[in-house]
Each structure stands twice: as structure tokens, then as C-alpha cells.
Fold these 3 entries.
Entry 1:
Amino acid sequence: MTPYAHIVGWGKCVPERALTNDELSEMVDTSDEWILARTGIQERRIVGEEETTLSMSLHAAQQALEVAHLRPNQLDLIVIATVTPDHLFPATSCLLQDALGATRAAAFDLSAGCTGFVYGLGIASHLLIAGVYRTALVIGAETLSRITDWQDRATCVLFGDGAGAVILQAGENEGGILATVLGADGSGGELLHLPAGGSRYPASHRTVAEGMHYIQMRGREVFRFAVRKMPAATQEVLQKAGLSIADVNLLIPHQANQRIIEAATRALDLPPERVYSNLHRYGNTSSASIPLALCEAADEGRIQPGDLMVCVGFGAGLTWGAAAIRWTRPQPVPTPPLRRFLRRLLYLLATTRSRLRKAWRWLNALLTRDPMAKDGRKEQ
């Protein structure tokens, strides 16, 4: 029997610091009324000095594992969707694999802009359905505040930081991720991009002076693209799943702009109560926005077993994607205190294991004789 890929766990992490519109108005020429009318955003979360994409991913992943009642060594695959990794390499997912103690898991990052989480769901679910893996962790995580020009009113009012995670597990009961649709149009890549920092424009005095390490966006063109693609991708994934818009209990769109969400909702003829939005609290968190909304919808009881949910997004690339999901997971029961203690101990052991492995590599390098050496001297 062909297995299905079910969401069995979820978790999120947002920084403590909330940057309100009123605070932003002291930094740049704007106002709460201007931002709210044009975006629907009231505040956004901003990472502290010690917080990173990895640290938020770790917290979200630990929550998801707790909800799923799984141990890290039961994970077969870790995928992190992000445009703000801790480093260009190694992949942030590999660092997370080590921090979790997920010793059996393969790991990689993917970059598909704000559509990244949906891309991750599509890739991971197909690997589970194909029988390659049984359990996968998919995360969307961003620290956009570190690539935002806080003097640019057109972009700084939009973006925030956060992470959301889900765990997918193969199972024979019908449901889970029923269909996914992924798309791209690279001819629109320049509409939303980070010009420098890659191999084309390596970091230099010029790239820094010209602000090429900040997000650059042509808002009107992106708006038109989003308003067209969000409804189209939703309809396409429903058709692929053999369903219709009337079957949808909850639409979770990418949280970019309230006007985009409302335009897509009207195009789909969906009532507002069947569309989830937390944009006003977090702003646009790119690949983290859909999993953050999914986690909150699940925690609030907005998704019940048997419900049909559609996650749909668009982003830099240009990319777009949608996933039709039949929810099968009941509300999680609280974790007993003893189990919480044992889980904390497990993560402490993972940290200890990581340090011991690093120490062993250092010692092994120190003691291992250079294969190019002869009689203590390198051959000429």
C-alpha cells in the first residue's frame, strides 16, 4: 500500500523583542496609520544579538518533536527553507542535525524565497511517499532583520524574524499531504533580491557602501504577481487533489501583505473566517510565515482532524507553490513533567556528544602522521 505523509508535530519560535509601528516611525519617515493601511502589519519580531536562524530553528524543532512524541534519532531527514542561513556553508540544517542529536538524519537547506516552506513540504512528502524515508523535519526560518535596510521605508516596515517547523511521518491511513504544486519564473528574479554576497558580487567596500547587502524589492510588480499566482496555485493544487474550493476548511497564505491576502481571498470566493492571518503580529517572515501561521492555527484549534487545509505562497525567484493537506493529527496532550525532564537531558547529551566529536577530531589531527611526510620531513 502506498503510504501517505502526515503532519504529526509542529512548533514555532519568535524573538521576544516586538518592534511596533510607532517605534518604526521614530527610525524612518512613516506612521502607524500609513503602515497599517498599506500592509495590515502592527508589529514584527526582531532577533536579539545572540539569536540566529539556527537558534530559532532548534527551538521550533524541539517543540515539534515534543508534539510528535518523537526522539531526534528517529528523524531521517531535516530540511530548512531559508534565505538567511547562519552561513553560506555549512548548511544550517547540518548544524541543527548536530544540535538536536539527530544522528540518523540527512540534512540540507533550500532557497526558494517566501515559498521555501511549501517547497520543503513538497520535496519531503514525496520522499516519504516513495518510501525513501519515514520521518522528516521541515522548517521555515528567517532572520530578515539582518538583511533589511532600516532607512528604507518601502521595505523595513514589512519584514520580521521567526521560525516554524513541522514533522512529517509516513503512514498508511489516508490523509496528510494530498498534493503539491511548485513553480518558478526566473525572469522576475530582479523584482525581489539581495544583490551582493554571492559569487557575482562578493562583499567589498563598494557593495557595502551601495547597500547591496540589503533586500531590494519592486513592490508593485511583486504585488501584481502575488495577486495573480496565489489564487491560481490554490485552484491548481485542489484540482490535482481532486477537490474544490468548497472543500477547503482553512486557507493559510503566505503572510506578506493584508491587501494581497484579501485580494486572493476575493478571487477564490472564500469567506474571511476560512482564511488564517497572523500578519499583524509578525509581519512578513518569508519562509517562516506559513509554518508560523500553521502552528498557531493548530494550537488555537482552527484545524481539526478531517479538515482540508491549503498552504499557498509566493516569493523571490520568482517562485510560487501550494500544498493541499488533510489534517489527521488530534490536539496533542500535555507532556508529563518527567518526559520533559528526560527530553532536556537528551538535548544536553547531544551537546556533549557534539563537543566530544569536535575534541576527537582535533586530537586525531594532532596525533595522525601526515601521509605526505617521510622520516618526519615532507618529501620535496
Entry 2:
Amino acid sequence: MSAPFEHTYDPRMLENRRQFFSRMANGIGTAALASITNPNLFAAPTASASASAAAASDPAVLEALHHHPTAKRVIYLFMSGAPSQLETFDYKPAMHDWFDKDLPESISKGQRFTTMTSGQQRFPCVGSIYKFNQHGDHGAWISELLPHTASVVDDIAIVKSVHTEAINHDPAITYIQTGHQLPGRPSMGSWLSYGLGSENNDLPSFVVLHATWTGRKEAQALYSRLWGTGFLPSEHQGVALRSKGDPVLYLSDPPGVDTISRRHMLDGLADMNALRFQQTGDPEINARIAQYEMAYRMQTSVPDLMDLSDETEETLELYGPESETPGTFASSCLLARRLAERGVRFTQIFIRGWDQHANLPKDIKNQCRDIDQGSAALIKDLKRRGMLDDTLVVWGGEFGRTIYCQGRLTKSNYGRDHHPRCFSVWMAGGGIKPGIVYGETDEFSYNITENPVHIHDLNATILHCLGINHEKLTYRYQGRDFRLTDVHGKIVNDLLA
């Protein structure tokens, strides 16, 4: 008689598939992989354990600039949602005769439409209902919606031929901010912080401001990764200042904690982090130490930054009645100038609400009123203080708008869909040639006919003004050298003064 069947309990019998492969990865698989893989291949660069506190507070990777810079800092006014070039800078008077006529196939050339309009039976053209006038020494055409911007037209370079491949908001904003349509890459401000460091140890080198708006209320979301570091060390992250409450969360000491106690706590924490760094060599530990120290110094520097009591009445009048209302675009522009004075490398103001698929005439009128006086005042203010020469100001969005109407078309109301084929950006100061209009589009503002400027070219030119060769500011990650312009981009020399 055979022995009875005996069952011996083995916990491995209860493993699921994921647990089994996880366990195997720690055995033979790991040994085999380690024998054929360079262990440093996927590692991020590590800092020396003897890195000084001074280096941590100003971690510029470029020991010397690649060429003489014309700008020390950038203020980027970003119009999130994509302003219509047809209502702002790209004057197309012939389109009035095309009202409610279908966009010719010879113009669209089978190009991609978004899913929001691809199902329309017709694509009727509609010119802007707003008037344009010529301004400045060279007679640049500017919409009546932007009278203050028109007053500084001799100080700015209007680029009408910017283009991108992205046709939807999030990929397009991610693309122009980071050089790639997929999330995960460092933002422009982070690249500049990494490459150039800071001119002021008491403020971040990269600051982000969010302005209120009165245009379309249903606005596209803005994610913190748009001012994030991606794979760069985290101390290069953009710091977003808030318009209500503490400008930076947790900046104020909690009840019962005074400055001396805070200092003792940070010193003890730094000692523990330094010990941990010696054990692991993780560069993020040094970044953490630097961020704690920056937060401590910002407890003094940020309240001083936000206090406008030292601004003259003349200056406040220049920026307009909203300049003393926290969170408005005018207030943000004034704050950007104060940040520039204090040596902040990159200040970015985001204002949402430009995504006008319907009710464009009403919404864009409000939106332009929000940004017009503040933008122009920033140029005038920098110029009178002698700062425009070394401060580069950029204004623009992620793409443009179509000549054809989205939705119902009437004589007084219409909408426009996304259009990546051409859109307008302006730049000023920091080595940019003033008073010019660069690039041209066809009579429908649909295709570029002269001097195209890809967003990689735009970013390469911005870096060039700062003394950086865009091909040489790189970071090795996962076995590859990355840069802001990816493997593309050329400097637009015609824009340089």
C-alpha cells in the first residue's frame, strides 16, 4: 500500500505572478544583469561628498559662458491657451471679403485638424472684427485691442512665423517649455538655473507667478511639471509665489517656533543629511540641504520683495490701477521687475484664459485688457531703469488660432480652433533687435511664407542671448545627453541686435 499523500506547506505556492518575478529579479536575474551592464549607465551624476555649502547655494554647472551674453535674465510672459494672432499682430484685411466662405483646400493642404472641428461640415473663414493701425518707425500693424503694447512697438521684435508640431494644449505647452511633447523633461527655467546658477543667494533663481484673468473662465490646467526639473537636481525647480496668504507655503514659522529655534533645527538637520550623504552619495541630499537653507533665507527676502511701499506713485500709475491688487497681471509684471532687480535669472508669468473656441470677440477683448498695460509698463519700466539692455522679455503662447470659425458664425461672434502652423510672439531687450517685424504668413494666416521660426529655434535664440550654446548645455541621463532643444534648433540671427 502506498504511503498517503503528504503536503508540505510552501509559501511560494501562494505567490502571484508579479511576486514571483519580483523575487526572481533579486536572484539569478540580478546577477546576470549586473555582469553585463555598466552600473553607472543609468545613474545620475553624483556630487562630491566634500561639496561646500557655497556651491550648494549657487550650483551653476557652467564654469564659463560659451560666448559674451547680451542678457543676464529672462522674464517670460506666457499666454496659456493660445492667443489668436489674427486679433493681435497678424493683420489680414483681405479676410473681410472672405467672410463665411470656405477655407480653400489649396490653403489647408490636407493638414491636420483637431477633433473639435474635424467633424464640421464647413470651415468658413472669418477675419477679425477689430481694427488694426500702424505704429512705430516701421509701421507695424497692431490691433486696437493692444494700445499700450502699440506704444512700445519700437522696443519689441514681433515674430509672426513661429510654429510647432503640437496641436493640443498640454503637449504644446510642455513642448515649448521643455523641448519635448511628453512630460518628464526639465523646463527652460530649470535649465537656466542649472547652467547659470543665481545672482542672489536669498531668492530662487527661477520664480513662477500665476495671474488672474477675465477672459474665458474654463481655462486649461497648468501642471507644476511645466516649471519642474525633470531629471535635473531638484534645487532648480521653479518656486511658485502665491498672491494670497504666505507667498510661499510653509515659509512662516509655525506658532511657538522662533528664528533661533528654526536655525538650530536646520543645523541639526543639515548634519544628519550630510552624514546620510556620506553613506549613500545621493546628490538629492545636497539639493535638500540647499532648499532648506533657501527657505530659511526667503523668510526675510520674500516679504521685502512683496512690499510695494517703496514704489513711487509714478511707477504704480505706469502699471495701471490693478498694479496694487495681488495676483493681477499688472501686479505680476511689477513683481517680475522687482525680481529682476534682485538678480532672479528666470521669472515666468502664466495667465490662462486664451483658449477661445467660442465667443472670441468678447473674451479676447477682456483678455487683452488684462495683459496690455502691464506688458507695456514692464518694457518702459525696465528701459527707464537701464535694465532692458540686459533683461530679455518674451511674450507668447503655445500655438495660434485658425482663420476658419469653430461653431456658429455670425457677423459679431465666432470662435477659432487651435492652429500650430503659425503664431505670433514678441521679444524685447537682452540683445534682441528692436522695432522689427520678422516672418510672414499667407493671406489666411494659415501657412508661413517667409522666415519660419520653430519653437526649438526660439529657445535656442533665448539661450544664445544668455551666453549659452544650446547644443552644449546638456545633462546625461539614462545613457544619453539631453538638452532643452533636444537634437534640433538654430539661432535666429536676424533677431539679434
Entry 3:
Amino acid sequence: MNAAFRFDDWDSPASPARPPVPTVNRDFLPKMESLAALAPINAADKRIVNGKADINQLAPFKYPWAWEFFLKANRNHWTPLEIGMAQDVHDYHHKLSAAERHVFENVLAYLTTSDILAMRNIGLAVMEKMSAPELQIYQARQVYEEALHTWTYQHCIESLGLDQQEIYNRYRVVPEIHGKIAFANRRLERVMRADFDLEDRANLHEFALSYFFFAVIFEGCWFYNGFTPVFALQRRGLMKGAAEQLQYIMRDEVLHCAFGIRVIRELLIEENLTLDPAALRQLWDEAEAAETAYAGYILKEPILGYNAELHVAQFRFIANRRARQVGVAEPFPGAENVLPWLDEQANLRKEKNFFETRVTEYQTGGALAWE
């Protein structure tokens, strides 16, 4: 081998001889006339989908709010290893009732699968179809955060010594957990395809409806309700480490939901599109039915301060909130806030109402603070 290309002789003195200059095959060099033919990009030409601008050119921004989401998300950086789980191990094995262990384990079983589904949906369906780089960059961060959340659930499962195969398989063998995942897969499956043509108006409406389901219902309602049983334990001084980790995840998820709602609102205006009220009604009804069945299973025995009826009622209340934020009709008029403690409980520092205020400042790691 030519000594100039060896990499296994780190201790040998450098040779004073100059290595030979590689010969360049000029047939592979880009033609300068083709480079000169590229026109400058106008930020106004960017679109959420079906854009004709250069996807590799970040600025000038057409959607500066998307860049702000990216900056905020990076200030909210954390890992599950920052939060101690020793007390949770004691609580799980010595303080939780059988009903409380059932709730906790099945919340984990649902969330472990849901965040992987969310990660794949963003990376394969949504991010690939967004045609403005500032949107894609935030969603790249979102893909990372969903992976981080999956790590967090795995950290809890390992810390508590749970049977990993049994926990991870519950979404396959428990019909009420499987029902939510299967419904999500059915709603998202077609739009995940790379050849899903968004220039077709029917496909564009299906994409908007699927993204509505993902951002508003899956992340904005189901994840919110998915954390609530653990926060109910935290209120009584139980499983505080796991609950704190879910509080960090909640901060990520509220940004995901807010970003998705902003995208939907702008997409509908940009494409002169209206979501079909009948399709929305069906979506809400199916989502409520899946959540009701799930609540009936995980809370088949109520725990102190929390039961299946409260879980479903709170889903309806949050669903109305999300619908108002998008600008569509409330699906469950008159639904009441049956868990007034929840917004405060979800907030790490309890300085502001987490879901009703705009997060304006994050800090890194365990020193997160609200403005």
C-alpha cells in the first residue's frame, strides 16, 4: 500500500516527502453554465406543502414562528438520567395498590408505543412533505424529542425492574390499548407514503385531516390524558420521579401541539381549504370511543382521586380547547373542566397555567424556568 494512504502507523514520524497529488477526472466536475442558471430564491415562494422554493435554503424565513419553535425546543433540553427514580422503586413495590400498579404499568405500555408511532409519523409522513426548511428543522428536533420520550419510558421500566417484553407487548394483546394504536395507524397510514400526491385536492384534504388528528387529538388530547393518571399519583406523593419526567415530556408535547395547530391554521389559509365538518365529527367520535375504552381498561378499578369517568370527561374538555385553538367547532359543547388541578400539576414550577399560556423562556436541563 502507498504509505501516503496508510492510517495504521500513527507513531511513525511524518515523511518529509510530499504525497502525490491525485489526478482529477474533470468529466465529473459540475458544469459552470448549469450553476449560473439557478435563479435566486424569494421567501414569498415558500409554502407549507407543494412549495417550489429551494428546500435547502433556510433564510429568509417565510415562517419565522417555526424557527422560534426550534429555538425554544432547544432551550428545553433534558435527559431522563437527570431525575432520580430511587423513591419510585420503593413506591412501586411497597406503596402502590394493585389497582395503582395496573394504572401505572398500562400508562407506560401505551406511551412506549405511542411515542415511537409519533416519531415515525413526523419523520416519514409530515416532515417529508413540508416544503419549507424552517418547518422541517423544528420537526427534526421533534423526531429527536419523541425518541427521547421513548428513552424516558424505557428508563422508568428498567428502573422499576418491570418485565420489558410483557410491558412492550401489551399494545398487541390488550384490545383497549391496541384500539388506540390501530386507530392512529389507520388514520396516518396512507399519508405516510412517499408517493402521496398533495397536489390532488382530495389527498390534500386527507393530509390536513390526518395532521389534525395527529397534532390536535393524538398529541394535544391523548397524550395529555395519557399523563394524567400518573399526575394523580404524584398529587398524593407517589411515583414523583416518573411524574417529573412526564412533566418534562409535557413541555415538549405542548410545543408539538402548538406547532401543529399553527401549521394547520396556516395550511388551511394558504391552500384555501376547509376541513369537512362531517369528517371532523367522525374523527372526534372515533377518538372519544377509543379513549373511553382505554379509560375503562386502565381504570377498571378507580384509584383515589381518579376514575374512568373523570378521564373521559377531561378528554372532552381538552378536545374543546384544542378545537377552539384551531378555529373549528367544539366537538363536545358544555364539557366541563373536571380536573381543575391538572394544568397546575402538569407545570413543573406551578408558576403559570401550562396549557393556557405561551411559553416564552426555557433553560437547559434541570434548571428550566418559566418567565
